[in-house]
Amino acid sequence: MFEIASNATVENGKVNVSASVNCPTGGYALEVDKQKYGEVLVISVTLRRPAPGAMVTQACTTPTLDTSYDLPEGINRVCVFIEPKSDPAFDFEL
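Given the sequence above, the corresponding structure tokens read:
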């Protein structure tokens, strides 16, 4: 199992999310998805793994993600989920 190091902040009308993970080979990537559910903005960070049997770089890699989103109007809560946990890693009441 991979442990994704992450950080999230909400400031100046923006949500900032950073994440990185150490992987044993190439072929891994961090992906982010955001969805608005009423007054809640949900951001999910997941680790994409190489396909079984795929040719990958034989070197340790560290995929990283650093992104920022403007807060949509009407949002009063931001939840950031980091795979594979089912509880938010970061939960901001605005």
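Residues 5-93 form one domain. Try to locate this feature in the token string yourself.
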